[in-house]
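assembly run, all chains below
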Amino acid sequence: MSIAAMKLCSSILQEHFGETVRIVGQDLFCAKSKTLGGICTSTKLSKKQVAASLAILVQYRLVRFNPIESNENIAEYTLLYDRILLFLRYPRYMYFIQKKYGNPSALLLEDLLKSGMAIAQSIIVRAYAASDVKNTETLKELRDSLLDLIGQKFFVRCPEVTGDVVPKLKVEIPNLFLPPDINLKDVNDMIEKGTDPMDVVQEKIFWTANFDQFHQAFRDKVLVDCIERQIDSNAAECFQFILSLMYNKTDVWAVKSNPISLNEIKQIVKKKSSNAELVKYLDQYVSIIEKDECGFLKKNDDIGGEAYDVNMKEAFKQIAWSIIENVITQKFGTKAARIFRVVRTKKYIEQDEIQREAMIPSKEARLYTYKLLEENYVQIQTIKKAGSGMGPTKNFYLFYVNQQQIARDLIEACYKSLYNLKIRVNLDKDANKRLMEKAIRLQFIVEALKERGESEETIQDINETLTPPEKEIVENAKMRLNRLESSEIMVDEMMLMLSLYLQYYSPAARSFYTGKIFLDYTEDIAYETDNTKKHSRSTKSILKRFQNSTSSNDSQTI
Amino acid sequence: MYSFRNSSLTKEQLNNLGVTSKDSNATQFTRPLFPILASKPSEIEKNVGLDYKMVWKEDFRSRLFEIHSNPTNQNSDSYSFKIANALEKEHKQKLQLKFAYSQMPAELNIQNLRKRVNKSKSAIPNKKRKMLKMEDVTKELEILEKKENLHDDEGSEKAADGSDDEGEIEGDVEDPELDDETDYHNNYFDNGENYFADEDDALDDGPVY
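ok done. output:
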């Protein structure tokens, strides 16, 4: 892990949990794993401070613990830095849930993200306290939304633990998404009496957010959006149905799906789509998607009839290429991008050939090629003729592109830019702190005066306490901060796509870049086994019971 | 037959690739930390989703910071903390997150640590009391030592006088005013008889630094 990543992780810990947690996190970052005593020694913090910080980190599942080999009663802690980086993506998870499942689900997710892990009753009670309308209907709606989120696998059970000094985690795959039994009457009593569910509930089942499921949803959205941009909205809808068919047959994170027959696609579209145009021209749409250069869908000739495979690996390869080319165009210009495309298509190419193929003058071609070489966008390969002696003139120097290497470098660049963005945000905030606070105070005062029905003159007098130059400074600072914050979100989106590409090409990177849940305990947990498939059916039947009373969760925009 | 191998570029190789000495000199310049881009980066499109994400992010960050920013003070019961930050503590208690300690190693539970601290605190006064007792004991021992010395001196004087003074001894015994236990006046004022006795002991033990 790089220094840039460490700095970024430290910065995230600092802004969310404060200085002490940052020190502990950074100390753990530098070591593979450490005991409580070890952290106390190296950080020179008190045992109480370190224990409190570690408790926060474990609560948010940012640290893993295991008993040390020599003594089962002493735990050693390992930092899961990939999970820290997911803090950057929390707003995206929230927006996704808000848009797809509505406000109650968003309240539940928000509470779960704020508490790290919690029991279902606590989540409902706190979400109820945060909701605008407070009645039994709201409570019921929250309970149903919670069960729906569990059914959709956005919430997952935390593993059960043994009662040892250093608890051992028992992961039971079939029970991961088993809905809890929530008695609304009990929850209502807790709200009325003001008791904390953690003190009352006997059998505590802790829940946490399943980020894997969010990433799967984002991945699908990226693909569907790509199809929409390349072809049209009907084709995008068709591909959405193909993806849903893929999940019935194949593991969600499989590189390539099992064959999906055209008949199956027709059946599902007829059954679920209200788009007459899509139903009428379905064959053509499938054919266009298959022939598209993106290569998302490939015809399978191995089995009889017309069948297709969804090729995730190829899809993300193409997406990664387009990201890289965009970066090169932004950084070095169109000529460099052209050279890069030539090297990419020819696989191995000599310098003279590059300038010929790219139709760029020799000197300029050399300049851009070496710029790309310097930034590691292209690599150089020496080919030596066997038995041709030692002279350099006997060698061939070929340029080639290593896509995985570039993707890794770009992710590193993302870490650096995110850290720089955070530094810049803090700098701007500190520089304009006094004026911004003054502006906020004025805003509150003016609002209060308006509520009281004060005259316009009085309000104007109050407003004038912030002079025009001060107003300009505040406006500029706000605009700059907004730009920096939105850049942070955009950089994270790019980072997600590159990490999804890497996870398909090097499975070892999967856990690291996408923060796979519970990877530390069992490797195959997120992969749907036969047991989980059976279980998901039972979950669906349980959910149906609740859904009778659930109001329809239409997608809601803000 | 070709052999593939990666190699760093030597001067000869660079020359062979067409990089002249002029070019290599030109690249000697130190690069700026933030080089100017060939084209202006495209503006980020503003939309409702982006605004929502920014507002939520800021709110989430500040809320979490408010709850966790000072983990050591979460359960602090020091007098100054209670007095100085009473309002803040009350506010924090409202936000206080109940940790899932059952899912963590026991050593992370601060309440457990506090109990241990209390135990150790209660152990300190006992130790102090013991220390005080020891001091008392040493004082008593010193007094007793002095008394013994007095007895020894008196005994030796009596041995030197012989049996002729038996009547005096009897008289001493009979006189309640001269009894060691009741003659406080005699004990209180040091007559300087044993002034060198302690010095001898100190010399025997060696110098004291």
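The mean pLDDT of chain B is 64.

Chain B touches chain A through 60 residues (CB under 8 Å).

not gonna interpret more than that til we talk
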